[in-house]
Amino acid sequence: MSGLLNIALVGAGSMGRNHARTISESSATRLAVVVDPFPDAGRAVADAHGSSWAPDLDSVSGVDAVVIAASTEYHYDIALQVAHLGLPMLIEKPVTPSLEQTEEIVALTAAKGLPLMCGFLERYNPAVLAAARLIEDPLYVRADRHSPYAPRIRTGVGWDLLVHDVDLIARLVGEPTESDRITASLGYFHPSSLPGAEDVGEISFQYASGPIASASASRIGQRKTRSISVQMLERAVEIDLLRRSVTAYRRSFVEATEAGGFRQSLEMEVPEVDGAEPLAAQLARFVRIVSGVEDMDAERRSILPPHRILAAALSSSQPANAVLGA
Length: 326
Prior knowledge:
By secondary structure, this protein is an alpha/beta fold. The chain has helices at residues 14-25, 39-48, 75-85, 99-112, 126-132, 157-172, 278-290, 296-301, 304-315, 321-324; strands at residues 5-10, 29-35, 52-54, 65-68, 89-92, 116-119, 140-146, 181-187, 200-206, 212-218, 225-231, 236-240, 245-256, 262-269. Helix 1 (14-25) links the parallel strand 1 and strand 2.
C-alpha cells in the first residue's frame, strides 16, 4: 500500500463521530466518505472533517477499506456487503450479536482473503498494556463496567459491555476450554429496554486449573465505572480503564505487636502509563494489517474466542462445552 488509506466510515452516531475524528487525524488515513442513511447526521460528520456523504455503500467507490460503526443490529448486513465488495473492514464490537452470523462473517472474509478486525478497544488501552507487564499467574480477576442508561443502545449489556471484559479475562488468564465452567446471571429492569435485552449481567469463570474470574456490567448505574482488579499470590494490580492508570500492591511484612495486634507494611507501585489513544492505536494496527505489515490471519483468529465465550455464558447458566469446543 502506498499513500493514504482511503476509508469509508459507515455510521455517523456517537462512535462513528469518534472514528471520523481519529481517521481524519491520522497521517496514514483519509476519511473519504461518511455513509449514513440520515442526511443531517451523515453530512454533519462529513462536513466537520472535509469529507463527503453518501446514503449507502452502493453509491461509494474508490475506497480502500471500511470502518463499520453503525448500530450493532445492522452489522451483519453491512459486513456481508463489504465482504462481497472485496474490501477490508474494521467493525465495531461485536461483529454481530449472533455467534452463528459472526462465524459466517469471519469465515467469509477468510475465504476471500480480506482483512477483518473487530473493535476490541480495551486491547489498546495503555493501562491494560502497562498492567499486563506486571501480571503473572493471576488467580482472581474481577472486572466492573457500569454506566447510566443510554436509550440509543438496543442490545443488552452482554454484547454491548461484557464482551470487552470477557476478551480481557481470556487474554489475562487464558481462553476457557471444555473443562472450564462459565455461568451468567442476567437482569431485566429498565422499561425502555427491548424485550430480551438485559440491563445487568454477571459472568463467572471457574477454570479447572484453579483461577477464578468474574465480570459485571450494568446500564442502570448512576456513574460510569470501568475497572479491573487482578490478584496473585504476591501482588495485586488494579486498573482504572477510564483514567488509564495502574496501581500495584504488595504486602512486604506482617508482624505482631506487643499489644497483641498486628502491624503490616504495604508497598504501592504506580507505573508510568504512556501510549496513544486506544482508538488511534487500533486504527494504526488496522492500517498495518491492511498494508500487510501485520498478520491478518492472526488478527482474525483473535475475534471468535470472546464471541464464543460470551455466547456460551448467555445461552445457559451451565457450561456450554459444545460452543466452547467449536
